Structure formats: structure tokens, C-alpha cells
Amino acid sequence: MKILLAPAETKNPNGDSKPFCEENFFLKELFFKREEIFELYENHIKSLDLQELSKWFGLKKIEEVKRYKQSLKNKPTMKAIQRYEGVAFDALAYDSLDNKQKAYIDDNVVLFSNLFGPIKASDLIPDYKYKQGAKLPNVNVEKFYLENFSLALDDYLGEEIIDLRAGHYEKFYKTKKANVLTFKFLKDNKVVSHWAKHYRGILLKHLATNNISSIAEFLASNIDGLKLIEIQEKKNIKLLVMQIE
Hints:
By secondary structure, this protein is an alpha/beta fold. The protein is 36% helix and 22% strand. The protein has 9 helices and 12 strands.
């Protein structure tokens, strides 16, 4: 069983591992495809002035724009699961987990980067900025990764998937073969939107701390603060409606 997770706009600026290279990623046979987008990104960033970059990055502070205008080629890297900062990642609290729980995350979680495509939690990435939905010239990045990585991902992810992504990242990959769990969160009978990220992080922490290895095992488990109230099925996908208590 594998777990799919969305990235976060905010990044940890640190890192002490080697810069962007093939060894930093899984699915090494497709590194040349990542490299293709990486080069397009580098050239595009280089071609824009600070005002244009401010809009493309979605940043107002010029100092932040200057930080991300720098080339990524020599920037140090760190694990993707530690690079991203945000509501889901705060709820997971990866650094507070023990070694066995961290290994579970490293081995089983696949994130979907707007720049690097599908990456394992343990893949090493630099501090970068790529606003969700931003466009590179002459290429649709989501479609590019969908077309070039889907077959390899089908093989890698196997027959059971827990999908904790936001809907946007289905543009990068959508399985047609595996059995998939997705989630909707309700509070006072209303759908939770932004804070759904928090509960996705809670679910991921639950999976790691309990070393859950199958969908059946997950469905049989109890999650503090969440109650399963409905399962909606469509083809290979089960949507779990969770009540926040």
C-alpha cells in the first residue's frame, strides 16, 4: 500500500545534501524527463525580471523573489517530506516521529511537486518556488508528468493506494487500476476545505504510527478525533466521509 500526498507552497530554506541530480530521485529511468522540465524552469526564471517573477511566483516581497531567482543547480537539498512546510506537514510532525515511523513515511509516501513531478518523501529536493497553476512556456507541466510517469507509477504504487492529495494533483496522476481511498471531512455537517489539509496530516501520522500496511487494516482502525460516517463507492475508488468530533 502506498500513500499519495500534495506538496505545500511554503518551503524550509535549509538543506545539506547534494544538489539536483539523478541519485536524488526514485524512478531513476525517468530522471531525464524531470531534467527536461528543470531546464525549462531554469531558463524561464532567468528570462524574467523581478517584477515579472514576483507575479509568476506569487510573491510580494522582493527579497523573497530574489531568493528564488537564484539557480537551483547548486542549491543544497533535503528530504521532500522535510522541505515542505504547511498545515498537513505540521499535523504530521515528521521530525517528532521515531525512526521506524520516519522509515514508513520515507518508503510509502509519494508527493506531487509542481516542478519535479512525483517524488518519494525521501527524495532530495532544493528550496524552490513554483506556484500551483503557474505555466512554463510551451509545456503543460501537469500533462507532461501525467503522460510520462503514469505507467511507471502504476507499477510502483501497486494495488492499494490511500490518496491524501488535494484535487489539483489528480492532474499529475490518476490511477485506473488500483483500489483507492479518498477522503471528505465534515464539521457540523459542513464540508471542511482549507483545514482538510490538517486532517490529511493527521491521517498520515495515524498510518505511520500504527504501521498500517493495507486498506483493510486502515478501515479496521480507530482515528482519534475522526469518525467514519459513510463510504461512497465509484468504480475502483472509495470516498470515506469522516466526521470531525
